[in-house]
Predict the structure.
Amino acid sequence: MYHYKRSLVTRYPHLDLLLPLELVNSRFASRGQLVDALATPEDLDAWLQTNAERLEVDLSDVSVTRATPALLDRFRLLRAAVHDSLAAAIEAAPPSPAAVQLLNEAAAAAPRFPRLDVRDGAYHLHMVDGADSEAVVLASVARATMDLLVGPDLGRLRRCSGPGCVLFFLRERRRREWCSDACGNRARVARHYEHHRQAALRR
């Protein structure tokens, strides 16, 4: 099972979204500065624990007990590929071939196969990942990204329009353009201020 020390990790704006969005949103803006919530292996431990229910793998069943610097590097590379792919989709632009290649490689590194078991006289089928636990976790994120890119939720994918915000989110209401009510409030305040500033200049 993954463990982390609460005092060592950087909190990120967890919005209870799909796994790819939770990963790209681990790089966010705070007080006008970009913050990386995957700066240390402990940060990655915390991110994995926070998003354990979204991963295809049961973290209690894998052998990794602490994230390593090498796994952190792989996750940061994967995050960049996910970010580039989602941003391209929003802008209806061609995705980066390098990003697509990295997603494919991460997904392929943990091949899955069915295994049949018999328990209490009944057949049970479950999927098994034939790779090391680190590859399994990376593959889970890559596959979730692919599902988003080809699935029905892609049309709801948005970038937050809040001032200075860089987060991605899935729009639930037709006109919503912010990742959270806080960003919506900041956007309204900024518009109000700009309206009064423009009115003052016209006087």
User: Anything to note?
Assistant: The chain has one domain: 6-106+135-202. Residues 1-8 have pLDDT under 50 and may be disordered. The radius of gyration is 20 Å.
